[in-house]
Amino acid sequence: SLKLMYDRSKFNRVTIERMLGHLHKVLMQMLKNIDQNLSELVYITEAEQRKLLEEWNNNTISYPRENAIHQLFEEQVNRTPDALAVVDEKQQLT
Predict the structure, then answer these.
(1) Which of 21, 27, 20, 52 is nearest to 41 (CA)?
(2) Do 28 and 45 contact (CB within 8 A), yes or no?
(3) Measured distance CA(52)–CA(81) in Å, rounded
(4) CB 92 within 8 A of CB 86
(5) Confidence tier at 59 by pLDDT (50, 70, 90)
(6) Quick one: 56 exposed, middle or buried, by C-beta within 10 A (0-12, 13-18, 19+)?
(7) pLDDT at 79 over 90
(8) How many Å apart are CA 67 and CA 65, to the nearest integer?
(9) Alpha carbons 80 and 40: distance in angstroms, whole number
(10) How far is CA 76 from CA 49, 71, 80, 91, in A?
(11) What residue segments make up the domains of the chain, in order of their start?
């Protein structure tokens, strides 16, 4: 049995129930396979995973199809010349 106390001003019951469902799912996986790595544990449901990947990941944007990609870059440079354009481990380019 597990008794959970939480700050109701910060969390609602639905959120806590979802978090408990995640904890239950992880614990059941750990009981099934005690040698499983933590990185292999899945704590979200299939429905939550679908929402993350399909609904919340809707990042499609439209852009002018008549311009080539280098022209779009040039337009952006003209609009925001000091903004970061490329970042790698060692340097940043504007």
Answers:
(1) 27
(2) no
(3) 34
(4) yes
(5) confident
(6) exposed
(7) yes
(8) 5
(9) 42
(10) 34, 9, 6, 20
(11) 13-93
Give the pLDDT score at 56.
Answer: 84
Rounded Cα distance between 32 and 41, Å, is 11
Nearest by Cα to 39 from 29, 54, 52, 24: 29
Q: What is the pLDDT of residues 1-52, one digit of tens each?
A: 888 899 999 999 999 999 999 999 999 999 999 999 999 999 999 899 999 8
Closest among 44, 7, 50, 37 to 23, alpha carbons compared: 44
What's at 83, amino acid-wise? A
